[in-house]
Automatic annotation (TrEMBL):
Protein name, per record: Helix-turn-helix protein
Domain of life of the organism encoding this protein: Bacteria
GO molecular function: DNA binding
Entry-linked Pfam families: DUF5753, HTH_31
Entry-linked InterPro entries: Cro/C1-type_HTH (IPR001387), DUF5753 (IPR043917), Lambda_DNA-bd_dom_sf (IPR010982)
Domain (HTH cro/C1-type) ranges: 16-70
Length: 285
């Protein structure tokens, strides 16, 4: 399998490493019995490489793993074997955004607070293109030619399937009222939101004007959650880029900001009614 580190492979590797260290044997000792290099054992334990099942059973035997430990190791191996959704992107995409794409693909949940536009995972292609065309000064020709909008559409597969991303989105009512790309484009976008809001893994709320001020009105807030013990990662987006926040104390503060905004927002049912009313207004034009 490709030597790409993922959280699932890292959790498996850390568990196997713990069993090896408890047994008191070196990576070189294990490598010799498996006819591997010690560096390959290191790659397994650090989450860059997933060993074959036969190699796993051999290691568990060497480590005198108990029955429940064997079951846990096999379960973690099965999880690690599942490839994350692969999102294709050009090398023209900035490095920091490539990190964003990898994190998004590896996450199991996302909470997004947006004050200016529809969250990327919920956008229609026409809406996304209208946004891109509105800010030509912030995207290079290479970025535009790389199929940035197409990549954004491909990312939406993360919301599908048995391992679909669990998404909670809170958007300002201005996002619903602002006619991006014209009446036809915006109507299609709002109908898409109504459709997505019916899914079990998507919870959409709107903050109405009457709610007053709320946290992070100066910019979008995105919080990624992961399986296991990995802590949340926060992405603060700004024009032309963004900043990662991974300190546990700080991520907790941003999580509190999101939850407070969600509390001030309309319920999912009320939000759907507001969006439906806006569709009616646009269609009446």
């Amino acid at each position: 399998m490709p030597s790409t580190q993922t959280r699932r492979k890292r959790r498996f590797g850390q568990y196997i490493q713990g069993l090896r260290e408890r047994k008191g044997v070196t990576a070189e000792y294990v490598a010799e019995r498996l006819r591997k290099r010690a560096s390959q054992i290191s790659k397994v334990e650090n989450g860059y490489y997933l060993c074959a099942y036969a190699e796993l059973t051999t290691m568990l035997g060497l480590y005198d793993a108990k029955e429940e430990e064997i079951a846990e190791a096999v379960s973690l191996w099965d999880d690690a074997k599942l490839d994350p959704v692969r999102i294709e992107h050009s090398s023209a995409v900035p490095t920091r955004f490539r990190v964003f794409l990898r994190t998004e693909a590896d996450a199991t949940s996302v909470r997004e607070l947006q004050h200016a536009c529809v969250p990327g995972l919920l956008q229609t292609e026409a809406y996304a293109r209208a946004l891109e065309q509105s800010s030509p000064w912030l995207t290079t020709p290479d970025w535009q030619a790389s199929g940035f909008v197409s990549a954004k559409m491909a990312r939406q597969k993360l919301l599908d399937g048995p391992r679909a991303l669990d998404m909670r989105a809170v958007v300002d009512v201005g996002v619903i009222r602002r006619v991006v790309g014209g009446v036809e484009v915006m109507t299609e976008q709002l109908r898409r939101l109504l459709e997505l809001g019916q899914r079990d893994n998507i919870h959409l709320q709107v903050i109405d004007y009457d709610a007053g001020a709320y946290g992070c009105m100066s910019g979008p807030l995105i919080i990624f959650g992961f399986d296991g013990s990995d802590q949340d990662s926060v992405y603060l987006e700004y024009p032309g880029g963004g900043q990662w926040v991974e300190d546990a104390t700080d991520t907790g503060k941003f999580a509190a900001i999101f939850e407070a905004a969600s509390t001030r927002a309309l319920s999912a049912v009320e939000s759907a009614a507001l969006i439906r009313a806006q569709v009616d207004l646009l269609e009446a034009r």
